[in-house]
């Protein structure tokens, strides 16, 4: 191809923006499209919510600590960046989790998947549910399918199929651990569409889960020795920020502009003019917006008030993580699992806790343990100072895990308005955004605000946005 190189801008230097930038550079090279790419990041560092810190000889994840391997884009990205041999799965000896009931940590029964059981014996013998609660959950086996079509909340689905106790004692804390959101507001089709499919295909969620488990077992058996190589959750030996460093290492340094906040954009002829705080505007042929929905809405206001309004209305919740390093002998609990979740009905500050040094190898030296507390979500404690919050969690650790004495390190990170909430009707709003964006040439949106909140979802959406933008730029360059 000939002519002047096209210019693409990526707004946002979290995982989404970095993947989009990397993909634009790689694919433009492959397709022989002359392209200059710049990435603008408002803060002084790359990575957004992904941040790994070393303290007290421990490897602490401030934001995400792993990603799902069943969504292929996470593992594929690591492979592409030469990080495959550094992938670490969860400790195979301790894959169970605990749940709090009336002040006691009880193991989640084997075969339980988020909302419902797939094995009968562990479910029937668990003290997590009352006999009446179990009976009500069993009704799922005979209840008819839902007649109405359209979205419903996760809470409505669970109460309808499995009853209130299943919601309060299991589904709510499990879901809060993933989405930091209230299931009374969350959209089922946007968050757990697999359960809609189960009801459609099997009528009962329990039968659906059993069917899926059998299918998975058959697949694993027929795959034999070449079967699944990864656990469900993966991380990297030196933490997830390694992914950020590897991506940044593939992008020319001059293209990565930190401390550069995009403010707005407008059309000028067939190009974009992007206004940047305290700097001259930047001209580009294509722009990929990889920002959380709020700032994205602000940037596109002049281009499409309709898109700006939908983006601006996307709700976000807040959470905080606290990484605690203790000497092993300070913790009475054997920490023989991946961690625990806390139902809201227990009225605790803690929402969940990962036993990080059990969950993944290499997080703490032999004589220490690393615990990662998750607080906030629907039950916010953000009025408290950092110190008060740490003290409250320590009190709960003392009661639940038998923790004694002060931690060697306690590192708190607040994520104010960082957890996107897929409320009822979310996918309709995404479809409306996609229709609107399809009318605007040379603009793409990517990130966790649309079709999946996890790291692999962000990578998938960045790949799609980069491909879309590159097609546009290629057509212009031809
Ligand atoms: C506490 C926590 C735990 C999580 N745990 C997991 C997990 O275990 N597994 C998992 O898969 N996912 C997890 N997630 C979700 C996952 O971390 C995010 O979905 C993902 O990192 C989002 O990446 P992003 O690049 O889209 O956005 P962000 O990481 O938010 O990055 C956006 C970037 O844009 C920048 N920016 C904002 N405004 C502007 C502007 N105007 N101009 C330029 N730059 C701007 C910001 O500074 C930021 O760096 C977690 C999230 C949180 C908050």
Features:
single chain, 5-stranded parallel β-sheet, alpha+beta, protoporphyrinogen ix oxidase, domain 3, 7-stranded mixed β-sheet, 478 residues, 16 helices, Polyamine Oxidase, Chain A, domain 2
The major sheet is characterized as: 7 strands, mixed
User: CATH superfamily of the largest domain, called what?
Assistant: FAD/NAD(P)-binding domain
Mean pLDDT: 94
Assembly status:
single chain
**What is the CA-based Rg, rounded?**
23 Å
Relative strand content: 15-25%
The top level CATH class name of the largest domain: Alpha Beta
Q: Any idea what the shape is?
A: globular
Q: Structural class of the helices, strands and pairings?
A: alpha+beta
Can you describe what's shown?
- The chain is an alpha+beta fold and 478 residues long.
- It is built from 16 helices and 22 strands.
- The chain has three domains: 6-48 and 244-314 and 423-477, FAD/NAD(P)-binding domain (3-Layer(bba) Sandwich), CATH 3.50.50.60; 52-90 and 316-420, Polyamine Oxidase, Chain A, domain 2, CATH 3.90.660.20; 108-224, Orthogonal Bundle (protoporphyrinogen ix oxidase, domain 3), CATH 1.10.3110.10.
- The strands form six sheets. Strands 8-7-18-19-20-17-21 form a seven-stranded mixed sheet. Strands 12-2-1-16-22 form a five-stranded parallel sheet, with helices on one face.
- The N and C termini lie close together (6 Å).
- Bound molecules: flavin-adenine dinucleotide.
- The site of flavin-adenine dinucleotide has 36 residues, from α1, β17, β21 and α16.
